[in-house]
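Deliverable D5.2: sample structural annotation.
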Amino acid sequence: MNQKFNPVKPFLLSVCLLCVIAVGFTACGRKLPVSNQSPQGKSHAGPVKDYASLLTDLRAAGVSVKPEGKVDQPFFSVTGMMIKVRGEDVQVFEYSDATAAEAQTALVSPSGSAVGTTKIHWVGPPHFFKKGRLIVLYVGDNDIVLNALEAVLGRQFSGR
């Protein structure tokens, strides 16, 4: 059989492939909504009060959270806990009460580049959050992580 090459079929296949790739890139570039609300509009968790409720609320907000162990920062007076939020390191420092946490937040410069007399050169942009007796530090720029932290902790008090 002698068949003649039909250029329409490869052209249509190429156009379809480009459309699939374009839709994939568009979907990957979107920010995912972060909320404490279930699809039915009911809250999954209560307000963040401590380390355990932070993990619960982050999970309720739809992000993966994994405890990783302890972390020490010389500029904070307590040992913190390292967690992975969507694979990103987040440090959580839990104080005995909100007053003790507030005293520590007063030492953090507005840009997050210094805490007390300690000047810090971060590997990425620092983001400091405070809620109750917790101080949470995330160094990075992942919008999904930032949105999740802001959803459960409120706006950052320091950082870039």
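Annotation notes: Residues 11-44 have pLDDT under 50 and may be disordered. The chain is about 30% helix and 25% strand.
The annotation will be released with the project's public dataset once the embargo ends.
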